[in-house]
Amino acid sequence: KAQGCLRANIAILIDWSSSEQGYEGLLADAAKAFVSGLNISENSIQITLITFQSDATLICPLSGDPNFISDKLNLLYKMGASGGTYVNDAVKIAVDQFNIDAKKRNASDIIIIISDGDIGDMPVTEKTLLSNIYYIDVFAVMIGEDIYNRSSYKSELGYKNLSKLTFIPNRVVISSSDDLVKALNQLDLCN
């Protein structure tokens, strides 16, 4: 868990595509619970929150202000999931947010992708992440209805896609939507 991080910029990228319809409240609850368990401040952990579907939306710019972040997280409850699953623009926004901070302080940059892994722009997203592989650690939490059925084509494809984006398969945690907070807390972000 990120509690051991001295200085980290964490970008949480949440799949807000049509495959997540009906789960928006669970995703918002999990993001809030995860963030509230972190030691957020301008001198320690800063958070940026980005949703992605057919395009990406910066919900919360990189911040170390827990109240500001909480207010921005509340916006998720008003948003409906729709569209395709295109993560590359969200990755680019995260990199831009990290680059703004890079001039101010020396911190680890971490991306957490929460998705079912049915990603429509895999090749370009892989290329974007590869160009930043030495600067950014990527983790993923795979969520969805059929995630534990590894013989399911959609489930297997989602796991393979997320493993490609993290570059290290053990950085992908599989979770039901109900256990998302637990899965996020299992990520070994700063060790």
How would you sum up this structure, described in words?
Helices cover 35% and strands 22% of the residues. By secondary structure, the chain is of the alpha/beta class. Helix 5 (153-166) links the parallel strand 5 (136-142) and strand 6. The longest helix has 15 residues, at 88-102.
Give a quick precis of the structure.
The protein is of the alpha/beta class.
Which keywords apply here?
191 residues; alpha/beta; six-stranded mixed beta sheet; 6 strands; 35% helix; 22% strand; globular
What is the C-alpha radius of gyration, as a whole number of Å? 15 Å
Beta strands, count: 6
**Which outline best applies?**
globular
Q: Between the first and last Cα atoms, what is the distance in angstroms?
A: 9 Å
Q: Averaging pLDDT over every residue, what do you get?
A: 83
For the biggest sheet, the summary is: 6 strands, mixed
* Strand portion: 15-25%
What's the arrangement of secondary structure elements?
Blueprint: E1 8-15, H1 24-36, E2 45-52, E3 56-63, H2 66-74, H3 88-102, E4 108-115, H4 122-130, E5 136-142, H5 153-166, E6 172-174, H6 180-186
Parallel strand pairs: 1-2, 1-4, 4-5, 5-6
Antiparallel strand pairs: 2-3
